Amino acid sequence: LLAGCGGGSDEGGKDAKKDGDAIKLGVLVYKYDDTYISTVRSAIEKYAKEADVEIKLDMQDGQGDQSKQNDQLDVLISKGVDALLINAVDTGSAQGLADKAKAADIPAVFFNREPAKEVVEACEGIFVGTTASEAGVMQGDMLADMYEADKEAIDKNGDGKIQYIVFKGEPGNPEAEARTEYAVKQAEERGLVMDNMGIEPLVANWMTDQAQTQMEAQMSANGDKIEAVFCNNDDMALGAIAGINGKSDAPVFGVDATEAGMEAIKSGKMAGTVKQDGDAMGKALVAIGANAAQGKDFIEGTDYEMAEDGFSVRIPYAPITK
Ligand code: CA
Questions:
Q1: Which of 8, 139, 184, 218 is 20 to 30 Å apart from 133, CA to CA?
Q2: Contact residues for 107 (Cβ-Cβ < 8 A; gap 6+)
């Protein structure tokens, strides 16, 4: 039963792969300089190499600039990629990206930064991401677990409430909004009385230095009052920890389980994080992208399931404490 591809080899695998048969995946990344996204990029490269089919990646760094990313999409389309993996810089501008993919008749797999459902459906694409609320829920649970284990260690002033602040990624970013909301909601769900001390979520754009500067100001103003710090990502949590500078042992929570974040948990500086599994994300993107490039259904022959929302595959998070 030799395949009709010539060459006479029945060994299959890499020997059977021919350059002309390679799948071309165009990958638009919102910003290389993002720790979590770096793990996703590495995983995409790893799983593309291991795939049953030969995959050629053309990966582009949007550098956080939507107009730059629009140009990169034009270039990938002109190169004739077979499918697109799109990590939109600005999810509000995803319609333009979807329209271009649709016009070029190239399947689009959006990932990580979630466009509106209508946008994804308009180009018959799919979204691969997480459930935005899940990371926040897990942060709230970690604080509630700590409080239940030792109330006095958390509620230092003994007023029966948890004085807290939140560091937020970007206003309007669905992940940032959901993490900010659900961390507190879940703690309340577990019976904690949460008090933001009149301090609205502090926007630090996912960045360590911005979080540190703001945390230093908070330490001057409210350092003795703060009993918990929720951060939408580890990079900001590390900034908050630097800003606290050992002057408080209020638990700080992050999201991402970056290498630096995991070190901070091991050394006891960070109370917990939530792992957004970059490796699992990259693996899913390669499997789904390869299917799309071959004209198959996105999740055909994979272990992935369409989420209840009907337009996405959701990769689960996991909480991590010391
Ligand atoms: Ca208190």
A1: 218
A2: 82, 83, 84, 101, 124, 125, 292, 293, 298
Report CA-CA distances (Å) from 280 to 41, 42, 59, 183.
11, 11, 19, 24
Longest dimension (CA), the chain: 79
d(CA 194, CA 184): 7
Angle between helices 174-189 and 132-149 (to 10 degrees): 30
**Cα(154) to centroid(ligand 1), Å:** 7
What's the pTM value of the predicted model, to 2 decimals?
0.72
Length of the chain: 322
Dist. CA 125–CA 75, nearest whole Å: 20
Mean pLDDT of 66-83: 98
Distance 156 CA to ligand 1 centre (A): 6
Name the token pair of 105.
């008749």
Is 154 within 8 Å of 162 (Cβ atoms)? yes
pLDDT tens digits, one per residue of 229-263:
999 999 999 999 999 999 999 999 999 898 999 99
Tell me which H or E stretch contains 195.
Answer: strand 194-195
DSSP codes joined into one string, 145-162: HHHHH-HHHH-TT-SSSE
Q: What is the DSSP letter of 200?
A: P
Q: What is the pLDDT of residues 10-27, one digit of tens each?
A: 444 444 444 457 999 999
What Å distances lie between residue 25 and 78, 154, 299, CA to CA? 13, 49, 16
Q: What is the C-alpha to C-alpha distance for residues 153 and 237, in angstroms, rounded to an integer?
A: 20
155 alpha carbon – ligand 1 mean position (Å): 4
- Give the Å distance between the CA of 151 and the centre of ligand 1: 10
Instruction: For 23-62, write each residue's pLDDT tens digit.
Output: 999 999 999 998 889 999 999 999 999 999 999 999 999 9
| Centroid of ligand 1 to alpha carbon of 141 (angstroms) | 18
